[in-house]
Request: fold
Amino acid sequence: MNTPLEEQAWLVGFSINPTADGPDLYTLIFPGEVDEPLSKDGYLLFFSNPNSAPQFLNSSCELNRSCQLTGEVDAVYDIAMMLDMLARKDTDTTATIVDGLNILFDLVKASNLSIPPDYQQTLYSLADHTTFNREFASFLTKQAIPRNTVIDGVLWCLGAIVSKAKIVG
Reply:
């Protein structure tokens, strides 16, 4: 007799509007060796109401798998704050930048698009640095990376994600 395998799903939110009180969009992430976002027919799926998560969870689980959400909202990625920090701050004590970059990398990868090499090198090196160091301004200066190049790279990632996304609820 086959026993269903249990699969966890993380409910994650994205704050895009700097004046909004809380996340604007949500998706599900299925953790594993490679974290997989909720997708269907080649599109990343996002929804605006976190209460919709169980509906999408049930429809996306494979046959013979039991899926569960791990909690309310497992993570919120504040994209608006990340862009503001990149433009105006020198230190990120909350790990907003590294967390934001890493989720963007996962979503771009899942969209089957490739970050242009110059942006990829810039963003990956910044992510590596901010994994262990919260101060990032001197790193950008030392590496001769203009802040606007980092911001342009983040905006490219956001555009790539949007081009392969559907808001489903």
In short: The two ends are 37 Å apart (CA to CA). Residues 79-166 form one domain. The chain has two domains: 7-76, 79-166. The first strand starts at residue 5 and ends at 15.
